[in-house]
Design a protein that fits this description.
Layout: H1 8-26, E1 35-40, H2 46-55, E2 59-65, H3 68-77, E3 84-88, E4 103-107, H4 116-126, E5 132-145, H5 150-164, H6 170-180, E6 184-195, H7 198-205, H8 207-216, H9 222-237, E7 243-253
Parallel strand pairs: 1-2, 1-4, 2-3, 4-5
Antiparallel strand pairs: 5-7, 6-7
Helix pairs in contact: 4-6, 7-8, 8-9
């Protein structure tokens, strides 16, 4: 298996693309004035810090990540913010008692989970009744490039959903996980993102890296990789490059 599909630079780049979507996700916690809100898979903690500004000083925002580099960065950036805490932890088990958390957010995390239902059940356990749960997830199967090499793209998508990412169809399964855990008032929105340059696609989606890995892992042949990526470069050079991907936002209430 190849290395994980993100690092701090990747998260910073993608944040610029997703800033409006992120800000919209914070609004579900506007009415929480006390208690704790958890952001699972918080990365370097930018969302935690922004949420802390919204909910006010009487509510705590807790960022959880399994990567000590991310947690250390979060602690450094939030050292002067009183209502922020970072915890180094896996997604399961979560270090909270039953029905003690006032809100829960997770972004582009479920795709990485090997036992997603177990984690969603755990989130249900720690949330107070009536508390909101917000999920943002990438629909990797929706990744689309506008080139003649459709069959190569299908193979790259297959590499992403079947090998690279633990739970490559997570975005399409979210509502099922939530129903199984008995969450209520489930709603889903689809947000398409369109990139118009190859540079953007490489920054936000690591396109060249994905295609290279697909070739290295024998999902596509080397000549297919060259044809596909050359077509992307030509489209970019001639001004008609286009790439799109969907993100989904799913909200619910315990």
């Amino acid at each position: 298996m190849s290395e994980k599909h993100y690092d701090i630079n990747y998260l910073q780049n993608s944040r610029r693309l997703l800033v409006n979507l992120k800000e919209a996700s914070y609004t579900y916690f506007n009415n929480i004035n006390t208690g704790s809100i958890v952001d699972l898979g918080c990365g370097a903690g930018k969302d935690v810090i922004e949420l802390a500004k919204i909910v006010g000083k009487d509510a705590k925002v807790i960022g959880i990540d399994h990567d000590p580099v991310m947690v250390n960065q979060g602690n450094e950036d939030a050292k002067n913010i009183s209502n922020v805490e970072f915890i180094l932890s896996e997604a399961y088990p979560l270090p909270f008692a039953d029905a003690t958390i006032a809100g829960f957010r997770t972004e582009r995390v479920v795709q990485h989970l090997k036992e997603p239902q177990k984690v969603v059940d755990e989130i249900y356990r720690i949330l107070k009744p009536g508390s909101p749960f917000v999920i943002i997830e990438t629909d990797w199967h929706s990744l689309t490039f506008y080139t003649p090499f459709v069959e190569v793209q299908k193979k790259i998508n297959s590499y992403l959903t079947d090998a690279k990412i633990n739970n490559g169809f997570a975005a399409r399964k979210l509502t099922g996980y939530l129903k199984h855990s008995e969450f209520n008032d489930i709603k889903l929105e689809i947000h398409p993102f369109v990139l118009s340059t190859l540079d953007e696609a490489n920054q936000y989606l690591w396109v060249e890296k994905m295609a290279t890995e697909a070739a290295e892992n024998d999902y596509i042949a080397n000549n297919e990789y060259k044809q596909f990526y050359t077509a992307l470069q030509q489209a970019d050079d001639e001004g008609y490059f286009a790439c799109s991907i969907n993100l989904v936002v799913v909200t619910c209430i315990k």
